[in-house]
Amino acid sequence: MRIALHTRVREDRIEEYEAAHREVPAELTDAIKAAGVREWTIWRSGSELFHVLECEDYARLLAELENLPVNIAWQARMAELLDVVHDYSAAGGAAGLPVVWEL
User: Fold this and answer.
1) Which of 16, 32, 40, 79 could cross-link 53 (Cys pair, CB 3.0–4.6 Å)?
2) Distance, CA of 75 to CA of 82 (rounded, Å)
3) Residue numbers of the domain that contains 27
4) What is the DSSP string of 38-56?
C-alpha cells in the first residue's frame, strides 16, 4: 500500500530536522524495513513536509514501531522539531492524506 503523510517542521528548526535525517539510526531504519516498508521519501516545501511510503500494512507498521525504544527516542526528538508531528483522523485513528487523483 502507498501512504501519503503531511507533517510540519518548526520554522526555526529546519536545519536541525534535516541534520537529524542525515543521521537516522540504522536500528530504526532496520526496524522500519522489518515492519514492511519498502520505500519512504520526505519532501520539504518551506516548513511543510510531505511523506510518501510504500508498505505492506500501515497500521501494522505503526504498531510494530510503537514500543520500540529506538523509535520512542526518535519520536521524542521529532516532537521537539515539528509543529505537526503526525497525521491523525478526527476519530483518533492513524490516517494518511486522502487521494484526490491518480494516473
Assistant:
1) 40
2) 10
3) 2-84
4) EEEEEEEETTEEEEEEEES
